[in-house]
Amino acid sequence: MTARRGGHRLVRGVRLHFLEFPESNERPPILLLPGITSPAETWAFVAERLAATHRVVVPDIRGRGLSDNRPGLGYTLDDYATDALGLIEALGLQKPIVIGHSMGARIAVRLAATAPDVASKVVLVDPPLSGPGRTPYPTPLGSYLTAIDAASRGASIAEFRQFTPTWSDAQIALRLEWLPTCSVEAVTETHRNFQEEEIFPDFARITCPCLLIYAGNAKVVSPEQAAEIVRLLPDGRAVMVRAGHMIPWDNLDDFIAATLGFLLPA
């Protein structure tokens, strides 16, 4: 297993916890930004695979895991992008590769658009494309809140399988362990902002090379939407992976192959 360590940094008054998987080489480090109810620990297995070639940092996004979750903290895209930029600076990540999944992909879009000189490459993994005038995000808020409540009440793996019927017992157990650390306020505000915050103008402002990975077995990014995003990106491409929205949980090998195919020289 890849060596790992955890830590905390105070970023503009917000305490952020992170996991780090160090790898000493000359390649750019990776900042891996998880989704709406995914603390860092739930993406450690992905970080371990990527750490074979890169230093990887996975934060607990504010309101999740061991990071700050005090009431009224604020959960806009700008809040999240500011945290990501501050963590990059605090950890001395030089020209990192920013990989974001779902909510984390929206954060990566905003970060790359507002701080265009920060990242060397960006990988966007099945980002919610909802926003004003667009199709709503397909997973309703109630689904997240019900899952958090079930985990917080001590649901068994068998009881929780209704939410993730294709996952292994080990995957569900990890989900049950960490879901209760997700602030209901954070999840509720973030889900509302999926509908209220527009990200499409940001795509055209991403100047570094960008890869969109979208799930072939989900309804978050359609092939037509993927093509629209690639047209907007100054330097972009897209690849579909046969998996549900939690792509590496369903198909880790193809996710890693697509990601490293973009990150590593041929």
UniProtKB/TrEMBL annotation:
Residue stretches making up the AB hydrolase-1 domain: 28-251
Domain of life: Bacteria
Listed GO CC annotations: membrane
EC number annotated for this UniProt entry: 3.5.1.106
Any Pfam family: Abhydrolase_1
GO molecular function list: hydrolase activity
Keywords: Hydrolase
Transmembrane segments annotated in the record for this chain: none
Name of the protein: N-formylmaleamate deformylase
Upper classification of the organism: Bacteria, Pseudomonadati, Pseudomonadota, Alphaproteobacteria, Hyphomicrobiales
